[in-house]
Design a protein that fits this description.
With 517 residues, this protein is α/β, with parallel strands linked by helices. It has 18 helices and eight strands. The chain folds into three domains: 93 residues, no CATH class; 176 residues, no CATH class; 167 residues, no CATH class.
């Protein structure tokens, strides 16, 4: 048996005042967060709290920001868990100075300051640049699908939403009439107005209805524009260029335009033939050559029109447009694991895995997002006071299009998926020099990817941007957004990437993991 133990003296009274500085080691992440917040530009946070003496004092925005940054670094995003940590966790107590803000205070702080998050991200990027962490020799752009705080099963048609809006508004009117006749003038707890969240539900339903109506109007406008362009081309005897639509109704409209163009072209050809015959007859000559036979282009167009009519007649009705009644801004996104209700989160990452530009989009396809990301990248470099220029930009096959390949900058865009790209490179072998002068845009890009320099540069893409998404999702458990609405998730994504960059800055300064042990 041991002679004695070092026991906990819980009844011991401290003879001197307790210093919080003794609670944490000198190199602890909490001290780093406190110092970093002191360097960030937080004027936008303080501007939200005018010093007019009205109401009770608000918590210091710098303290609230430091608590949130430390919480995100430790994979804690729940406001209730942050409140609990302020009571029991030494690091949280050091940052808050012993104060315990309510969980609703954290939630309101995030909502009230969402417009300032983009500025805080740029301010954090400026700190990383000053520390020499930003390396723009290679920048990789990619996107990841993030879950929305909504379910796939919450997507509804405009008819269903309209019925719910009418029913809820009718119940509200009946409730108000019942309240007027209730003794004491108080609301009836069993009425529709007494149901918690009825007003918010009605607002979400109206937002979803507006989304569907706006998308229908945009689709109708685009369809009218395509039909008008097709009519102009047909009148001039030219077919509409571009890939033919697969949707039966749109394919039928294209086939009708093709027939009209073929007929106009055949008529113009017949008129030219008639004019030549008349001129030859007037000159007392005979027009030599074969007599024109049936127009093959017109026959092919008419045959295609007949098939398009049959396909349109047999086709099932087009599914009605839907919107999510929980988060109307979210969209159905396809991932490797299946479909999710979510957003497309984009990031531009440098060679040191620092996020230098970020955005959130409702577009499931990346191809339309390269140009906006390049603009955001340029804006971030300017706002972050980064003196280096972006030298090479990498993007996977999801961004490939001939229009994107012509964008300004040294772009390397894969024309196939990564494993197909590697297989094609093995089969075709390497090449050297500049692309041939007569090469198409696709052939020129494939030539650049097959050179030793291009292959080595593109090989850095997956090890540059993919670890950032892995850090968010696997290490930090940030697989989805906690707030709803496009503006809200954009602010949340900016804050996630600010937290990521500050974690890299902490590693750079101390050589430690950003999560304290």
């Amino acid at each position: 048996m041991a002679f004695g133990y070092v026991a906990a003296q819980r009844d011991q009274v401290f003879l001197l005042p307790v210093s919080m500085a003794d609670w944490l080691a000198e190199g602890h992440l909490a001290w780093f967060i406190i110092d970093v917040v002191g360097e960030l530009d937080t004027r936008a946070l303080h501007a939200h709290h005018p010093n007019d003496g009205v109401g009770r004092p608000a918590y210091d925005p710098d303290m609230m920001l430091a608590l949130l940054l430390y919480a995100y670094a430790n994979s804690v995003r729940s406001s209730r868990r942050i409140e609990a940590a302020c009571r029991t966790d030494a690091a949280f107590r050091v940052i808050s100075g012993g104060l315990v803000p309510d969980h609703a205070t954290f939630a309101r702080f995030v909502v009230d300051h969402e417009a300032a998050m983009e500025g805080l991200f740029v301010s954090g990027l400026r700190l990383c640049s000053a520390a020499g962490l930003v390396d723009l020799s290679t920048v990789a752009i990619d996107g990841t699908k993030m879950r929305a705080d909504a379910s796939l099963r919450a997507n509804r048609s405009v008819e269903w939403i309209h019925e719910q809006v009418v029913a809820l508004m009718a119940a509200t009117v009946a409730s108000e009439e019942a309240e007027a006749g209730t003794p004491g003038g108080g609301p009836d707890p069993m009425s529709a107005a007494g149901i918690r969240g009825a007003t918010a539900r009605l607002s979400r339903l109206k937002e979803a209805q507006a989304v569907i109506e706006a998308e229908d109007a945009a689709a109708a406008e685009a369809r009218a524009g395509r039909n008008e362009a097709a009519a102009r081309e047909a009148q001039a005897g030219r077919r509409v260029r571009g890939r033919k639509p697969t949707e039966p109704t749109a394919a039928l409209a294209r086939a009708e335009a093709d027939v009209a163009a073929a007929r106009a072209k055949a008529q113009a050809k017949a008129e030219r033939r008639a004019a030549k015959e008349a001129a030859a007859q007037a000159a007392g000559q005979r027009l030599v050559g074969f007599q024109p036979g049936p127009d093959r282009n017109l026959a092919q167009a008419e045959a295609a029109l007949s098939k398009a009519r049959e396909a349109a007649a047999k086709a099932t009705p087009t599914p009605k447009r839907q919107a999510n009644v929980t988060d109307a801004d979210s969209r159905i996104m396809k991932t490797r694991q299946g479909f999710i209700q979510g957003y497309n989160a984009q990031a531009a990452v440098d060679a040191n895995q620092i996020v230098v530009a970020q955005m959130v989009s409702q577009d499931a396809n990346d191809v339309q997002l390269l140009a906006p990301m390049l603009k955001l990248l340029g804006d971030s470099v300017t706002a972050g006071a980064i003196s280096d220029a972006v030298r090479k930009i990498l993007a996977d096959a999801g961004y490939w299009s001939e229009e994107n390949a012509r964008l300004e900058g040294d772009l390397l865009i894969a024309t196939l998926k990564d494993w197909k790209q590697r297989k094609a490179a093995r089969q075709s072998g390497t090449t050297t020099g500049e692309p041939p002068e007569d090469a198409s845009t696709l052939e020129a890009m494939e030539h650049r990817l097959r050179t030793a320099e291009g292959a080595a540069a593109y090989a850095m893409r997956s090890s540059t941007v993919e670890p950032v998404f892995g850090n968010h999702k696997a290490n930090r458990n940030r697989t989805g957004f906690r707030r709803r609405g496009l503006d809200a998730v954009r602010a949340e994504w900016a804050f996630m990437n600010l937290s990521h960059n500050l974690g890299k800055l902490f590693e750079h300064g101390t050589g430690n993991s950003p999560i304290p042990v």
